[in-house]
Amino acid sequence: xxxxxxxxxxxxxxxxxxxxxxxxxxxxxxxxxxxxxxxxxxxxxxxxxxxxxxxxxxxxxxxxxxxxxxxxxxxxxxxxxxxxxxxxxxxxxxxxxxxxxxxxxxxxxxxxxxxxxxxxxxxxxxxxxxxxxxxxxxxxxxxxxxxxxxxxxxxxxxxxxxxxxxxxxxxxxxxxxxxxxxxxxxxxxxxxxxxxxxxxxxxxxxxxxxxxxxxxxxxxxxxxxxxxxxxxxxxxxxxxxxxxxxxxxxxxxxxxxxxxxxxxxxxxxxxxxxxxxxxxxxxxxxxxxxxxxxx
Length: 295
Known about the structure:
Layout: H1 2-14, E1 15-16, E2 19-20, H2 23-34, H3 44-51, E3 76-83, E4 88-94, E5 99-103, E6 109-116, E7 118-126, E8 139-150, E9 155-157, E10 165-170, E11 174-181, E12 195-197, E13 216-221, E14 233-237, E15 254-257, E16 260-262, E17 274-277, E18 283-289
Parallel strand pairs: 3-14, 14-18
Antiparallel strand pairs: 1-2, 3-4, 4-11, 5-10, 6-9, 6-11, 7-8, 7-10, 8-13, 12-13, 15-16, 17-18
């Protein structure tokens, strides 16, 4: 998978533990990420399914109840490619109607590319006001994006602009390739925090004159950097076996609740799955390695 290797090598040169070394370096990585297609990461079959998807398409994943209906939705899968002190790379494979809840990327630059499918994106940036004494107190944020996206060019969000706080809801099966620099690190103060919209519609605080109040929402941080209940991601690390056929890596299995796994679909290399935290980002179920590694 030479395109992934080229992308990883460029990231190693262009990124540091403090983020991109320059705007030109960031654009170099963006150009390489623009070139990545589903075939380059072994997801061409999944991309074809997404192209043919409609709301009546019958899902093959998920544990079925006695009436034959899907009792539990399949989880989001995270295909882990690389992580070091300067950057991380991975792909979120999202089944229809799955949601990555509202979360942030503190002090980080994020490049995202939708490889296939359609999703709804909603993103915000903080409005610069005096910091509340209580970090869990609602704070105002300005709407940046609230729209449907389908396999666009690579987008970039910055530490303080571009929609650093965002949420995604899959409309069809879709895959989102993320490059984060620097990566999440609890030790360095880059926790992933989750947020909810405050029921309070107006809080007595002065907003900048240039801010349209109709685009302002009040966001509350969830306690202890914990994701909303029921948010589960199945994590797979994969290695490049250049002499073997490309594996379909997304049929990992399905979760009915936190930590409970059902029907692993016979994917070779998958062992028992346990709940772990990944750098404070998401509640992730981790499996054994099956695929591509750039290290």
